[in-house]
From TrEMBL:
<keyword id="KW-0804">Transcription</keyword>
<dbReference type="InterPro" id="IPR005119">
    <property type="entry name" value="LysR_subst-bd"/>
</dbReference>
<keyword id="KW-0238">DNA-binding</keyword>
<dbReference type="GO" id="GO:0003677">
    <property type="term" value="F:DNA binding"/>
</dbReference>
<dbReference type="InterPro" id="IPR000847">
    <property type="entry name" value="LysR_HTH_N"/>
</dbReference>
<dbReference type="GO" id="GO:0032993">
    <property type="term" value="C:protein-DNA complex"/>
</dbReference>
<dbReference type="Pfam" id="PF00126">
    <property type="entry name" value="HTH_1"/>
</dbReference>
<keyword id="KW-0805">Transcription regulation</keyword>
<comment type="similarity">
    <text>Belongs to the LysR transcriptional regulatory family.</text>
</comment>
<dbReference type="Pfam" id="PF03466">
    <property type="entry name" value="LysR_substrate"/>
</dbReference>
<dbReference type="InterPro" id="IPR036390">
    <property type="entry name" value="WH_DNA-bd_sf"/>
</dbReference>
<protein>
    <submittedName>
        <fullName>Transcriptional regulator</fullName>
    </submittedName>
</protein>
<feature type="domain" description="HTH lysR-type">
    <location>
        <begin position="15"/>
        <end position="64"/>
    </location>
</feature>
<dbReference type="GO" id="GO:0003700">
    <property type="term" value="F:DNA-binding transcription factor activity"/>
</dbReference>
<dbReference type="InterPro" id="IPR036388">
    <property type="entry name" value="WH-like_DNA-bd_sf"/>
</dbReference>
Length: 302
């Protein structure tokens, strides 16, 4: 089946040029086309559509009702096409275009703002979309094409994902300042037996690590509270509502006490992930290089 618009695009663009310029003479100058050539093109478009689009009006021409209707629709369509072309061209320019970065909640207060501040200084024309979610959510976004780059933990070894480890964060026990273990320099996971444990919701990497840690220690996987934010977990621990297992530095400033876990202690590995099946645009490549270069120190205690 032939498309109804097949072959009409050049004529439609010329018709819009006539409307925007105000006359065929001005449109011909704008397009760099002789006026008779442009007049014949508009007349040919009308014949192909089976109706007159322009009629003579004194020494010039004016659009017919059908011509005005077609020009109105063509103008809207051409506006969308121009926007699409501008977007595609911008994505070929490392100093323009758009990038979507996914990251974990724990990276929001310090690490990601610091990293993006440096990137914006070098690439002020790039617009950045942000998605702050659990690791499995941002990785699903990468696979679905909604997210270009993701800072996540853990990142599974899958053929459709590319990944690069950026930082390793040891996990620590977090207890209230007046807790019986607060003065210890190191504790075993078994030392947390009988304590109400506060943790993150399922889907977060730290929650999976906490589950595995308690399971190996023979402790029940029962939790007093589950949160989306490490800062909330640390604050509740500081208030005396329980204990937690978090990355080192996550409880800084909360009033809770961090204690090293007995060796070999678990750790959260933060990686940068992107799709192995899509070609990265220039701005995505630029942000990836920036994160690979500056991510390790910024994420060491994110």
């Amino acid at each position: 089946m032939a498309y109804e618009t097949a072959g009409l695009a050049p004529g439609l663009e010329q018709l819009v040029a006539v409307v925007e310029a105000g006359s065929i003479t001005a449109a011909a100058v704008r397009l760099g086309t002789p006026q008779p050539t442009l007049s014949r093109a508009i007349a040919r478009l009308g014949r192909e559509l089976g109706t007159e689009l322009v009629v003579r009006d004194g020494r010039g021409v004016r659009l017919t009702r059908q011509g005005e209707q077609l020009a109105e629709h063509a103008t809207r369509a051409l506006r969308e096409v121009r926007a699409g072309v501008a977007t595609v061209r911008a994505d070929a320019d490392a100093d323009a275009g758009h990038v979507v970065l996914g990251f974990l909640h724990s990276m929001g207060p310090r690490a990601v703002p610091s990293l993006l501040r440096g990137f914006r200084d070098a690439h002020p024309g790039v617009s950045i979309g942000l998605v702050q979610e659990a690791s499995d959510v941002v990785l699903d976004g990468v696979l679905a094409g909604r997210i270009d780059l993701a800072l996540a933990s853990p990142v599974p070894d899958r053929p459709e994902l590319r990944r690069r480890a950026l930082a390793r964060q040891p996990l620590v026990a977090v207890v209230p300042a007046k807790h019986r273990l607060a003065a210890r320099s190191r504790v075993r996971p078994a030392d947390l037996a009988g304590e109400p444990v506060i943790t993150l919701r399922p889907g977060y990497g730290v929650r999976s690590l906490t589950d595995a840690l308690l399971r190996r220690a023979g402790l029940p996987l029962t939790y007093a509270f589950e949160s989306d934010e490490m800062t909330t977990v640390a604050g509740l621990v500081a208030a005396g509502l329980g204990v937690a297992v978090l990355p080192r530095g996550a409880a800084s400033g909360s009033g809770a006490v961090e204690i090293a876990l007995s060796a070999p202690g678990p750790a959260r590995v933060i990686s940068l992930a992107w799709s192995a099946r899509r070609t990265s645009t220039a701005p995505v490549t630029a942000l990836r290089r920036h994160l690979l270069a500056h991510g390790p120190p910024a994420l060491a205690s994110a």
